[in-house]
Amino acid sequence: MNRFEVVAAMLPSADVCAQAARATEEHFAPSNIAVCKYWGKRDAELNLPINPSLSVSLDHLGTRTRVEPIDGPVDDIWLNGLQMRPDTMFAQRLSRYIDLYRQGHPQAFRVETRNNIPTAAGLASSASGFAALTLALNDALQLELEAAALSMLARLGSGSACRSIYSGFVEWHMGHREDGADSHAHPIEAQWPGLAIGLIKVDEGVKSVDSRSGMARTVESCHLYQSWPLQANTDLVKLHQAIDAQDFKLLGSTAEQNALSMHATMIASWPPLVYWQPDSLAAMQKIWALRQQGLELYFTMDAGPNLKLLFLEQDREAVLSHFPDLEIVLPFGS
Amino acid sequence: MNRFEVVAAMLPSADVCAQAARATEEHFAPSNIAVCKYWGKRDAELNLPINPSLSVSLDHLGTRTRVEPIDGPVDDIWLNGLQMRPDTMFAQRLSRYIDLYRQGHPQAFRVETRNNIPTAAGLASSASGFAALTLALNDALQLELEAAALSMLARLGSGSACRSIYSGFVEWHMGHREDGADSHAHPIEAQWPGLAIGLIKVDEGVKSVDSRSGMARTVESCHLYQSWPLQANTDLVKLHQAIDAQDFKLLGSTAEQNALSMHATMIASWPPLVYWQPDSLAAMQKIWALRQQGLELYFTMDAGPNLKLLFLEQDREAVLSHFPDLEIVLPFGS
Q: I need a labelling partner for A304 at 20 to 30 A (CA). Which of A223, B79, B165, B328 fits?
């Protein structure tokens, strides 16, 4: 089944763009930080994953997007106040996603999207971006879809976008169906006031190998990847235990080992896929040294050089004294 | 079966130390660089590996050792001209190994051992050290054992020492017997004149976690390790092809992916086992950039921060221009 057929089955009619398109207000979707990572697709067309994953949404950090039907042959796409040429990768990726809703009808849209996180630096702006665009299109086309359906649609734009439909802890059930109808995220009914995430910016540049290509390379060339689903499934059980018991040590250690294991599958790929910079490694060594001294500080990392620290708000001053430039988010408040 | 029983079966008599001990000349064993790594034991008492491995011996770099029976209650152990106190880890490890030959008889030895490689910095001085000591004890006790038996005995001192009994390319067959009688190295009948190994010294300090503990941690805590034997066995086939065809690209790429996969299993262990320093990563990035520019340059790494470069002698000047401090070894000459 291809993407167009999957989306067609979710729309009220094939010509919804002709019948219902209207301008929208801004819709917000948060960025999310996975504590059990998504790495590897079993279906690249539908973004169906090889393993389940679990994330925390980043409260106010994410993407705001509004859409508006326009006359003309091509979409008019704006990112952070700058008009993007239609031949940029960014504009093409958004237009191809909107094509799923157009189903062949020649309706163009103006898309205005704003991130308050660095684009493409491993801070998952594509996740919040496609989630916010999905929410805006749901409004623009008056689809009135439920969250699970929106999560499925967002997944077609970028896998981890399915988790950015929700706030708080979110689990992406990998599903088993070929059409992906059972592969979408669910919110986890748990709060964790005082849980803190700190963003270290090692490098804000665009990464050399995008996640899509990186995953494909890992699945094709890395022997160790065969054991990655075992790691992810084991970690998922531990993370649920940690969240239920508010056991921060279990949460942090599981998230860190999960991230390092994902990077291990990249490192063991060919050609080697090493997103770490020397400064990333120096930051890790600093964290391990601080932990040895008793500070409950862990990290996670996505497909990029940046670290995301995990700690409790009670240790905020201690953490800031060692990482003064840290941007801190409390996903559940104080 | 324990180590004492295994060795007893290989000695002409239990009191060989009483009957035949004599002073020896120096015996040399080379260090070896594995292109398919040994990582993980199925039997920690007998140093029986979970996977086969393949190495190149480093010609003139290694260990020279002589032994001499002495009167007195304890061994008198000298390393690089310095007398080692009997309570040092180094002296204790050697004495415990000699105990296997003493079989309870109270004969002490003077051991004089000299390395021309940095000790315990990932340049496998324990491999050449136990191999040289095994050769010296074979002479001192007039055992007249064959190479395969010496390889097996050296393995009891340090796993990879079984490969340092030979020069050139060496394969360690993991074996399947419980007593380890089929787990020893064999020389590969192949020469490769012009094959060059370059040693980069990132850090000559003693490493924070020794290989024995590191392996145990990986086997116990790393899920990805379950796929490591698959990696090693696949690489072994490729390495034999590369050696047979003198296909340097295949040799280099296989060795590099194998080393990175071994480090990946360490990185995915808990607590994380990261032997890399920021300078190690910077050296890797430099190598990948040079390879992109067309230089056939690969690396391997053991359980430490140092890189070992693999290249052909024809590229010596090009490699030296980027790594001026390189120590170059030609295991098979020009």
A: A223
Sign of CA dihedral B244, B246, B250, B252: positive
Neighbouring-strand partners of residue A62: A30
The answer to whether A179 touches A10, Cβ cutoff 8 Å, is: no
The per-residue DSSP string of A145-172 comes to --HHHHHHHHHHH-GGGGGGGSSSEEEE
Q: Under a CB-based contact definition with an 8 Å cutoff, are residues A47 and A134 in contact?
A: no
Which ranges in chain A are annotated with CATH 3.30.70.890? 195-329
Is the domain defined by A195-329 classed in CATH 3.30.70.890? yes
**SS3 of residue B70 by DSSP:** strand
Q: For chain A, which residues lie within 8 Å of any Cβ of chain B, measuring from their own Cβ?
A: 222-228, 230-231, 234, 253, 256-257, 260-261, 263-265, 267-268, 270-272, 274, 276-279, 281-282, 284-285, 288
| Residue spans of alpha helices (H) in B158-247 | 211-221, 228-245
**Cα B211 to Cα A188, B44, B275, B302, distances in angstroms:** 41, 12, 11, 9
pLDDT tens, position by position, A153-182: 999 999 999 999 999 999 999 999 999 999
- pLDDT per residue as tens digits for the range A108-152: 999 999 998 754 444 658 999 999 999 999 999 999 999 999 999
User: CATH code for B3-187?
Assistant: 3.30.230.10
Residue B179 has pLDDT above 80, yes or no: yes
CB contacts of B226 in chain A (<8 Å) are: 226-227, 230
C-beta neighbour count of B37 within 10 angstroms: 28
Contact B315, B273 (CB under 8 A): no
Tell me the angle at which helices B147-157 and B125-140 cross, rounded to the nearest 10 degrees. Answer: 130
Of A230, A274, A284, Cβ closest to residue B274: A284
Residue contacts between A and B (CB atoms, under 8 Å):
93
State pTM to two decimals. 0.95
Chain region(s) in chain B for CATH 3.30.230.10: 3-187
